[in-house]
Every structure is written in C-alpha cells, then in structure tokens.
C-alpha cells in the first residue's frame, strides 16, 4: 500500500511482522503508518459493520458501516491516552505517542480480523429470520444474532491485544509485566469501547424502532444491561 521503507506495504506483511519490526514502526514518527492503520480500520471494521446492518435495510448497513470504524477510532484515541498513563505504573516505560501507536496497531489487527470474519457474519445474518413487524427485542433469533456478532468483535479485539505480547515482552524484558499491561489495556478497551458503542450504537439494538444514525433514546440505559438481557432471553426464553 505504501512504498516508504519500514512501512507495511501489504496486509500480509502487517500481520506477519515480528516484535522487532513492529517496535521499529512504533519508534519512528511515520504518518504513513498511521494512514495504513486507519485505512485498515475503516475497510475492515466498515465491512463488518455493513454486514451487521444489512440484516435490517440498506440505510442501516450504511450507518453501521460508518459507525463501527468510528467507534474503534474514538476508542483508540481515548485508550491511547489512558494506556499511556497506566503503562508506566505497571512497569512499561512508553510515551503517550508510543502508547497511541501501539493501541492503533492492535485495533488495526482487530479490524483486519473483523474484515476476514465478515463472510462468516454474513452467513449468520443471512440465515437469521428477516426483520418483520413481529420481531421484538425478546425474539430469540434476534438475541442469538446480536450475541454472535458481538462475540466476533470481542474475539478480534482480544486477538489484536494478545498479538502485542511479544512486542511488550521485548520492550519491558519481562513477560510478567507484559501480561499485566495487556490485561490492563484489555480492561480499558472493554470499559471505554463499550460506552462509546452504547452511544453510537453500531449494533441493531431495537429492531422495531426507526432507523437513525444516533437517536435521543440511545443516551439512556447501559451496554452491560443490554448484553445481559440478550443472554437471558436466549437462555430463558
């Protein structure tokens, strides 16, 4: 994608890069690397979001395809700053710029995985009964699809963070510190990311409501409450 030396010029090179090469990317101010990562997030997460939204209608697919990359980029910015403060307390001496670049790379990896999972997600969406006037929040098929698509996102996010373990182990020269930092970063990603998700709603939270980019009712309730209710409906219909 980019011809500059030291910059990943393909998704394959980006995914196969070892800790030494990733550290070299992080240690230099390279705007092209940022552009590569942002493009990966927009294309990978955007494709997955479009698949999620197409269960309802084309407009929902467009909205979700825009909102999911936006959620990831906002979470990257917030957690880059948060993790820059947490890392030194846990034994990893990194600057805010390094922290932001590491988080950006991890979310780029997650987005590439989401892009690869898009055909699987499309299979799930395609085989879920279509939206009708009878579809309610209590419908088991809706809860199953909602949880399945959310689990794919969680899997991609965890994989993207764990992929950084070799880099952090080399940086700190301690596998224990590296694991501690990754766990703290995962917790931060979950907390901040879920709250941003709740406001922007890249999922189809109310199949009976009208299609909106962001509605007023989206500022009420809780992400965790909704996931709990979806699981309860699926297990105890």
Can you offer a commentary on this structure?
- Helix content is 73%, strand content 0%.
- With 237 residues, it is an all-alpha fold.
- Helix 3 (31-53) crosses helix 4.
- Residues 1-5 have low confidence and may be disordered.
Please report the total strand number as a whole number: 0
Mean pLDDT: 80
Structural class determined from secondary elements: mainly alpha
> What is the tally of helical segments?
9
Q: Low-confidence parts lasting 5 or more residues at pLDDT below 50?
A: 1-5
Radius of gyration: 19 Å
Q: State the major sheet.
A: none
Shape: globular
The helicity comes to: over 70%
Order of helices and strands: HHHHHHHHH
- Distance linking N and C termini: 49 Å
Instruction: Note the beta-strand portion.
Output: under 5%
List the helices and strands and how they pair.
Elements: H1 11-16, H2 19-27, H3 31-53, H4 58-90, H5 96-126, H6 140-162, H7 165-172, H8 175-200, H9 223-235
Helix pairs in contact: 2-7, 3-4, 3-5, 4-5, 4-8, 5-6, 6-9, 7-8
Short note summarizing the structure:
By secondary structure, the protein is mainly α.
Jot down its keywords.
73% helix, mainly alpha, 237 residues, globular
């Amino acid at each position: 994608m980019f011809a500059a030396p030291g910059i990943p010029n393909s998704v394959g090179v980006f995914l196969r890069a070892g800790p030494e090469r990733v550290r070299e990317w992080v240690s230099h101010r390279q705007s092209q690397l940022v552009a590569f990562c942002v493009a990966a997030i927009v294309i990978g997460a955007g494709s997955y979001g479009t698949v999620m939204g197409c269960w309802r209608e084309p407009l929902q697919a467009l909205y979700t395809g825009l909102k999911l990359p936006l959620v990831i980029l906002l979470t990257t910015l917030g957690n880059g700053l948060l993790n820059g403060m947490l890392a030194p307390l846990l034994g990893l001496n990194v600057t805010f710029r390094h922290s932001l670049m590491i988080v950006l790379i991890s979310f780029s990896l997650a987005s590439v995985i989401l892009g690869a999972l898009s055909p699987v997600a499309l299979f799930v969406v395609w085989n879920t009964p279509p939206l009708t006037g009878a579809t309610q929040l209590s419908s088991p098929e809706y809860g199953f699809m909602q949880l399945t698509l959310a689990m794919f996102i969680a899997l991609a996010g965890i994989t993207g963070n764990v992929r950084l373990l070799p880099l952090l182990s080399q940086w700190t020269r301690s596998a224990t510190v590296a694991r501690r930092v990754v766990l703290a970063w995962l917790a931060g990603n979950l907390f901040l990311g879920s709250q941003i998700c709740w406001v922007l709603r890249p999922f189809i939270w109310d199949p009976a409501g009208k299609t909106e980019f962001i509605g007023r009712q989206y500022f009420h309730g809780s992400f965790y409450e909704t996931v709990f209710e979806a699981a309860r409906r699926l297990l105890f219909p």
